[in-house]
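INTERNAL AUDIT FORM
Audit reference: QA-55
Scope: verify that the stored structure record matches its stored sequence.
Auditor: D.O.
Record contents follow.
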Amino acid sequence: MPPRRRHPALRPVLNEAAQLTDRLQEAGYTKRDIARIIARDPSLVSQFYTRNKGAAFVPALREVLAAVLTGGITDLPELAVIAARHTQRRTTASGARARVRGKAVLITPTGSGTGRVGAQAIASGSAPLRPVIAEAARRGLRLAFTVRLAKTAYLHPSGSRTDSPGIRRDVIQRADHTEERSYGSAQTGGFDAADFARRVNAASGDVTAAVHQWLVETGRIHPDAHILHLEIRTWRPR
């Protein structure tokens, strides 16, 4: 019996968002970069291909592609500003504009504020925290942060003077084998927000990467560790 002829699988027709994403990838950007540009999680960019999503981002992606190919703009924060001007809020089934979460934090006149992000925002660089850090730097504030990672991701045991340093109340152990540790406080003086803002800028606006790099540089976590939760706190120095 003659073997059956196999026909090559036809590639599905991509929607315009996926086509524009392909062109941006050809220009050297990753899906994570594109997610950062449109201020969304990378999983949404993947859904341009798998679930036919992304129609609301087509105008923004067109403008970003034009800025890259024609304007020669390559900086991610600049491209994010361009995208933001052309991103439309989604609508509900009734046609009303969908409500979105507010800003991660409101820094009070006294300089105190707290901003938190979870796994979804962390995966795309903790973008909601970047303006918080920038505003804290502008005001000359101090800064502290809390991270949650798997217990095995830390290099030192909880309460270690090399890490916490030695203050067990700055460590919270959770039932899912993760651990929260705080770095900086009003008692210890915390960190200069301006210095941290420079770290974030050096990481192309990726707050997650900037915090991760500091933790690795100071010998607190393994290089391949993943941050699961991030909180930023600010206050005015006395």
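Auditor finding: record pair retrieved intact. The CA atoms of residues 37 and 72 lie 16 Å apart.
Action required: none
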